[in-house]
Design a protein that fits this description.
heterodimer, A: Rossmann fold, four-stranded antiparallel β-sheet, globular, B: ABC transporter involved in vitamin B12 uptake, BtuC, two-stranded antiparallel sheet, 12 helices, 2% strand
Chain lengths: 233, 291
C-alpha cells in the first residue's frame, strides 16, 4: 500500500533522513519507533506532503506521490493525525469534525460524524464547545475523530499517547486496535515501545535518520539490542 | 451646550458613515486575521475601486449601487490574483516582507492613478441624492441610507459565509492552525488568496457606497485606511464584531467631535480614541490576548 524508498529528507540545509525505506501493507499496523529527534515526524511530514523530500520515492497503491502537495495526499486517503493534535481551537467540536471531511468523505459527512460519535461518545457532549477548551485527552479523541472523517485508507498516528494519563493511553491503544480490526491500515509512530509492539504486526526502529532494526513485532520485542536501548533491560 | 436633538442628529449621521468605515475595516481585519499581514495597499485598492465606480457611472451611466456587485466581483478577482501572483511569491513566509510588498504595491497604484487620472476631484452626482427620509431631528439622504443599509447587509452576509460554508470554515481553520488545515487537505495558498480577495471585495463594495458622497482623488485611500486601521485596533485585530462596533463608534465620534470642535478639529476625537484604546485595552474591544 505505502512504499517509502531510500528517502532523504530534512529542512532547508539540515538533512534528517538518510535513505529510509519502509512499507505498510493493506490491513497492517506498522509501528515506527524511535526517540525524540530520530526523524519520525520528518518521515510523516514528507509522506503527508507537508515537505518535499530531497531524494528517494514515496508510492501509494503504486502511484508516485513523491513531493505531491498535502491536499492531494489527503484526497488519496493518507490521513495523518499529527503530534500535538493541531485541532482548530477557535472552532467548535462539530466544526472540527466537519473540516475533517473537507477534502475527502464529504458526501457521507453526517454518517461519518455519527460513526465518530459512536467511537467517542464524549465528543457528542462537547459538540458545540470550542475545541480549544477541551482537555488533552478529549483533544486527542477529536484529532483522531477528525482524521476518521476523511475516510482514511492509511491512518498515520503520530504519538497518539503523548501527554495522556496511563488509563487514557490504554484506552487509546484499545481504540487503535478496534480501528485496525475494521480493516484500516495504520502507521503508528510512537515512543511507547512495549505497547506499540504488542499492537503492531511489524515494526521499524529509526535512529539518527536511519532504520536500524525492522521485522515482525513479535520478534523485535525479543531483540536484545532493543531491550537494552529502549526498555533498560 | 448643544440641544439634545442636535447631538442625536449628529449620532445618527455618524452611525450612517460608521457602517461604511466598518465595511472597509472588515476587509482589513479579515486579511490580518487569516494571513497575519497588515495590508498597506488596502486604501489604494479602495481608491482604484472608487475610480472604477466613478467611470462606470460617468462613461457607462451605471448607477454605483447597481455596479456594486460587479465592482466587488472585480475587486475579488484582483485581490485573489494579487495574492497568488505577487504577494505569496515575494513574501517567503515572512511578515515584514509582506508589509513592504503591500506598501510598494500601494505606491505603484497611487502614482499610476495620479498619472492617468490626475488629482482632479471627481464626484458621482446621483439624480436622487437629495431625496431621503425626515427623522424629525435630522434628514437622511439616499446615499447615507444606502451606505448604512448595504454595509450592514454585506457584513451580515460575510458573517454567515464564515460561519456556515465550508470555505468560510476553512478560512477560520487556516487563520488559527495552518498545519492542521493542511492535514485535512485544505489548500492553504488558495484559502489565503480567497481571504485576500474577500478583503479586497469589501473595499470594492465600500467604494460604490462612498462615491456618491466623497469626491475621488488618488489620495482618497489614505483618509479611509487610517480610519480603518483605527477601527481594527479599536475593535480588536481579526475580530468581525469588533470591526462593526468599532466602525460605528469611530463614525459617531467623528460626527459628534465635529459638532463640538468643528469639522477640521473634530477628527482629533478619532486619534484620541485610538490612543485611549492603546493605553487601556491594547487588544481592542473584542480582541484576543496573545497566547
Amino acid at each position: 500500500m505505502l512504499e517509502v524508498r531510500d528517502l532523504e529528507a530534512g529542512y532547508g540545509a539540515v538533512q534528517v533522513l538518510f535513505g529510509v525505506s519502509l512499507d505498510v501493507a493493506d490491513n497492517e499496523i506498522v509501528a515506527l519507533l524511535g526517540s525524540n529527534g530520530a526523524g519520525k515526524s520528518t518521515l510523516n511530514n514528507n509522506v503527508s506532503g507537508l515537505y518535499a523530500p530531497f531524494a528517494g520515492g514515496i508510492r501509494f497503491d503504486g502511484a508516485d506521490i513523491t513531493g505531491a502537495p498535502s491536499d492531494r495526499i489527503v484526497a488519496e486517503g493518507i490521513i495523518q493525525v499529527p503530534e500535538g493534535r493541531k485541532i482548530f481551537p477557535n472552532m467548535t467540536v462539530r466544526e472540527n469534525l466537519e473540516m475533517g471531511g473537507y477534502r475527502r468523505g464529504r458526501p457521507r459527512r453526517s454518517q461519518n460524524i455519527d460513526r465518530v460519535i459512536r467511537v467517542f461518545p464524549r465528543l457528542e457532549e462537547r459538540f458545540s464547545q470550542l475545541a480549544g477548551t477541551l482537555s488533552g485527552g478529549e483533544q486527542q479523541m477529536l484529532a483522531i475523530g477528525r482524521g476518521m472523517m476523511a475516510e482514511p485508507r492509511l491512518l498515520i498516528l503520530d504519538e497518539p499517547s503523548l501527554g495522556l494519563s496511563p488509563l487514557l493511553v490504554e484506552e487509546m491503544f484499545g481504540l487503535i486496535r478496534r480501528l485496525h480490526e475494521e480493516g484500516l491500515a495504520i502507521l503508528l509512530v510512537e515512543q511507547n515501545v512495549v505497547q506499540s509492539l504488542a499492537l503492531a504486526d511489524r515494526a521499524y526502529v529509526i535512529e539518527n535518520g536511519r532504520i536500524t532494526l525492522s521485522g515482525p513485532a513479535a520478534e523485535l520485542i525479543e531483540n536484545p539490542e532493543l531491550k537494552k536501548s529502549y526498555l533498560g533491560l | 451646550m448643544y440641544d439634545f436633538s442636535i447631538i442625536l442628529a449628529s449620532v445618527i449621521n455618524g452611525t450612517m458613515t460608521g457602517a461604511v468605515y466598518a465595511l472597509v475595516a472588515l476587509g482589513l481585519t479579515l486579511i490580518y486575521g487569516v494571513l497575519h499581514i497588515i495590508n498597506f495597499a488596502h486604501g489604494s485598492m479602495l481608491m482604484v475601486a472608487m475610480y472604477a465606480a466613478f467611470f462606470l457611472f460617468a462613461a457607462g451611466g451605471i448607477d454605483p449601487y447597481v455596479a456594486l456587485p460587479l465592482v466587488a466581483a472585480l475587486a475579488f478577482a484582483f485581490g485573489y490574483a494579487l495574492q497568488r501572483s505577487v504577494i505569496s511569491k515575494t513574501s517567503h513566509g515572512r511578515d515584514e516582507i509582506i508589509l513592504l510588498v503591500t506598501l510598494g504595491i500601494s505606491i505603484v497604484i497611487e502614482n499610476a492613478a495620479l498619472f492617468f487620472f490626475t488629482s482632479n476631484e471627481r464626484l458621482v452626482t446621483l439624480p436622487y441624492d437629495i431625496e431621503g427620509i425626515d427623522l424629525g431631528v435630522t434628514f437622511l439622504v439616499v446615499p447615507q441610507l444606502a451606505a448604512f443599509g448595504a454595509s450592514l447587509v454585506i457584513t451580515f452576509l460575510l458573517w454567515l459565509f464564515m460561519a456556515r460554508t465550508d470555505t468560510g470554515k476553512a478560512i477560520r481553520a487556516v487563520a488559527k492552525e495552518r498545519l492542521g488545515a493542511r492535514l485535512v487537505g485544505i489548500n492553504v495558498d488558495h484559502i489565503f488568496a480567497i481571504s485576500f480577495g474577500i478583503g479586497t471585495a469589501c473595499v470594492g463594495a465600500a467604494a460604490c457606497l462612498l462615491v456618491p458622497t466623497f469626491p475621488v482623488t488618488p489620495q482618497i485611500g489614505y483618509v479611509f485606511v487610517l480610519i480603518a486601521f483605527t477601527v481594527v485596533v479599536l475593535g480588536g485585530m481579526g475580530s468581525f464584531v469588533g470591526a462593526l462596533i468599532g466602525g460605528l463608534i469611530i463614525g459617531i465620534a467623528e460626527s459628534v467631535g465635529g459638532l463640538f470642535f468643528g469639522e477640521t478639529l473634530g477628527k482629533i476625537s478619532i486619534s484620541l480614541i485610538f490612543i485611549l484604546v492603546l493605553l487601556f485595552r491594547p487588544t481592542g474591544l473584542f480582541g484576543q490576548r496573545l497566547r
